[in-house]
């Protein structure tokens, strides 16, 4: 299929690249070897906002959380959710950076297997044409239909053509339902890698906090630490929270990774649990408060739904944990 291309010019650098009409600005820039500031890649954080100087764009995800009327009045656009419908000129802010970067990897993948992990939560195993280099903790964008792209974190380690994702089907969720409807043998396009919530290997106290399917990037980072036989020379706490014990979809896999790390312990947390539940109950924030005596002395890795991530960030802020010690991935 032939695609029309538009010229994308980035100021003040003066860099000009071609953008296919189905590409987001961020996608086109990465494909052209130009690095633009971004974090989430799906329109939640707003880190990729640019100023549209000339030309026209179309918003691919009108419901993106970071879209607001004030930005529209100032010609501010989301690079990750805007595509050019004419030749365009955009300007990055003074704090952004544009320079050669690893090119975007976009490959066809085949669905090998689907495994039920918990009610409406499944593990999807895909095989790509060639291995995609990524760091544990990063995520991919899955193309699930025309104009339908969703982000999912890899739960496995890099080094092969296998990519595994843990995802939940939500009633009314177009993306999650499209993914849940796939059967082994289905083919789709996968774009990767994205994300900066990756493991820092320096020694020191580590606390990993996963909520729901946010267990995927946490599991990948712990698998990395176990495979590399890392000894952080300090306690490692891994908290995994979900609504009920049955919703702790990857608890066994997480516990197995934790068991391979020195001074590490696994702490499952269920918001609603029977009296016989032997672990913590309630919100994961309460579990952090009761188990982490000196949070400011630890480095935190947090992944899960925005409500949970924001609550954990607020808790850590109130405990005077430096922002440089908090790495997070918010989605859902």
From TrEMBL:
<dbReference type="InterPro" id="IPR036010">
    <property type="entry name" value="2Fe-2S_ferredoxin-like_sf"/>
</dbReference>
<dbReference type="Pfam" id="PF00970">
    <property type="entry name" value="FAD_binding_6"/>
</dbReference>
<protein>
    <submittedName>
        <fullName>2Fe-2S iron-sulfur cluster binding domain-containing protein</fullName>
    </submittedName>
</protein>
<feature type="domain" description="2Fe-2S ferredoxin-type">
    <location>
        <begin position="6"/>
        <end position="96"/>
    </location>
</feature>
<dbReference type="InterPro" id="IPR006058">
    <property type="entry name" value="2Fe2S_fd_BS"/>
</dbReference>
<dbReference type="InterPro" id="IPR001433">
    <property type="entry name" value="OxRdtase_FAD/NAD-bd"/>
</dbReference>
<dbReference type="InterPro" id="IPR050415">
    <property type="entry name" value="MRET"/>
</dbReference>
<dbReference type="Pfam" id="PF00175">
    <property type="entry name" value="NAD_binding_1"/>
</dbReference>
<dbReference type="InterPro" id="IPR039261">
    <property type="entry name" value="FNR_nucleotide-bd"/>
</dbReference>
<dbReference type="InterPro" id="IPR017938">
    <property type="entry name" value="Riboflavin_synthase-like_b-brl"/>
</dbReference>
<dbReference type="Pfam" id="PF00111">
    <property type="entry name" value="Fer2"/>
</dbReference>
<dbReference type="InterPro" id="IPR008333">
    <property type="entry name" value="Cbr1-like_FAD-bd_dom"/>
</dbReference>
<dbReference type="InterPro" id="IPR012675">
    <property type="entry name" value="Beta-grasp_dom_sf"/>
</dbReference>
<dbReference type="InterPro" id="IPR017927">
    <property type="entry name" value="FAD-bd_FR_type"/>
</dbReference>
<dbReference type="InterPro" id="IPR001041">
    <property type="entry name" value="2Fe-2S_ferredoxin-type"/>
</dbReference>
<feature type="domain" description="FAD-binding FR-type">
    <location>
        <begin position="104"/>
        <end position="200"/>
    </location>
</feature>
